[in-house]
Amino acid sequence: MGSEFDVVYTWVDGGNPKFRSEMHARLHDLSESPPPNSLRPGIFRDNGELRYSLRSLEKFAPWIRKIYIVTNGQSPSWLDPSNERVSVIPHDLIFTKRSDLPTFNSLAIEAHIHRIPDLSRKFLYFNDDVFLGRSVSMEDFVTQAGGQYVYVDHALPAKIPEHWIDDRAQAYTRGLIQEICDRPISRMMPAHVPHLFDRDILFRLEEIFSDQLQKTSSRRFRTPNDVSTPTLYSLYVSEFLGTEAGHQRRFLAPLALSGLHDYAMVMLNNQVWKMITFLCAVRMFQPRFFSVNDRLGEVSTSHLSLHCFRGLLQSYFPCSSSFER
User: Fold this and answer.
1) Residue 94 and which of 105, 119, 166, 216 are 20 to 30 A apart at CA?
2) To which H or E segment does residue 30 belong?
3) For position 299, what pLDDT does the model report?
4) DSSP type of residue 94
5) Cβ(151)–Cβ(179) below 8 Å
6) C-alpha separations of 117 from 44, 68, 93, 133, 223 in Å
7) Hey, where are the domains in the chain?
8) Strand order of the sheet with strand 86-90?
């Protein structure tokens, strides 16, 4: 196993006028409206997370080789294009069918990230709203037996409400792995943390589930029958390849207000004081990973919840990274 690890981010600025114009034009072309939750504002809102996630990466994982930011052609205005360690990758460089573009479906994008040219065989995948809260090493992702850790943090409900589009896509994906296993498989789902991916395994999954992944790629907006690549990968590695290949499932203990734990999910909502208490706990106890789940609707960028969250990020990572102008 090589020692070089790259990082891949997916990012979009949902407030960009061109992006919004393209999205509304594609919505107008649809024969029927996509599920409402596939268009919720929090999916596309840019609250400055990527800048701070990169700061966390440089501070707590300096061993990373190179960073690739997959976008629809946009580039963050603050990103330093002269930094040789970071590259912006447009969708049309990795999508196998140009007719699938433009896309507003993050699951379609994730299905192609292993096609980035010159990407290391093993790489970490970050959503732009995922952060490192303290120092991590390769040993946090790779086992001594040469396999990898698969981080999980919740069980998929047996009955999923129709409007829970993300969970329904995970359930659909879990069903695909169940079909190729000869025994019942876990309902534990991957945590919203950095995912270690092996390109060779992703290409293998692309062959096994070619039809389902192509259909996912062709859908411009999320649907319940899309393949979730992190779910597909984590279940295949832990359930199908298993411990014989050195892989281990590891449950992440969520942050409790009473002390230090592995992982925190920050919920952005209108319960501001409850949220502020949790933000203070994240800052104080510094979990290994934390991420954000934006459940706010159409709100101003000056909304108190967004303002408080930006305050947490600025307090946690006050120093500019080498990736900024």
Assistant:
1) 166
2) none
3) 87
4) T
5) no
6) 26, 10, 9, 29, 28
7) 6-254
8) 86-90, 67-71, 6-10, 122-127, 195-198
Q: Residue 182 — φ and ψ, nearest 5°?
A: -100, 25
Provide the residue count of the chain: 325
Widest pairwise Cα distance in the chain: 53
- Tell me which range, 120-124, 253-257, 261-265, 302-306, is most confidently predicted by mean pLDDT: 120-124
Q: In Å, how far are 85, 123, 225, 231, 314 from 219, measured between CA atoms?
A: 32, 26, 10, 18, 36
Q: Which helix (H) or strand (E) holds 203?
A: helix 199-208
- Rounded distance, CA 37 to CA 39, Å? 5
**What gap in Å lies between CA 200 and CA 131, rounded to an integer?**
26
Give 221-282 as a DSSP string: S--TT---HHHHHHHIIIIII-GGGT-EEEEPPBPBTTB--SEEEEEESS-HHHHHHHHHHH
What's the burial of 160, exposed, middle or buried (CB within 10 Å: 0-12/13-18/19+)?
middle
Tokens of 42: 């929090």
Tokens of 104: 């507003």
For all residues of the chain together, what is the average pLDDT?
Answer: 92
Question: Is the peptide bond prior to 190 cis by the omega test (within 30 degrees of 0)?
Answer: no
Q: Please answer whether residues 14 and 41 qualify as being in contact, where contact means their C-beta atoms are separated by less than 8 angstroms.
A: yes
Q: How many CB atoms lie within 10 A of CB 299?
A: 16
What does R_g of the chain's alpha carbons equal in angstroms? 19
Four-way CATH pick for 6-254: 3.30.160, 3.90.550, 3.40.50, 3.30.70: 3.90.550
What pLDDT, on a 0 to 100 scale, did the predictor assign at position 258?
A: 61
Average pLDDT over residues 64-73: 97
pTM here? 0.94
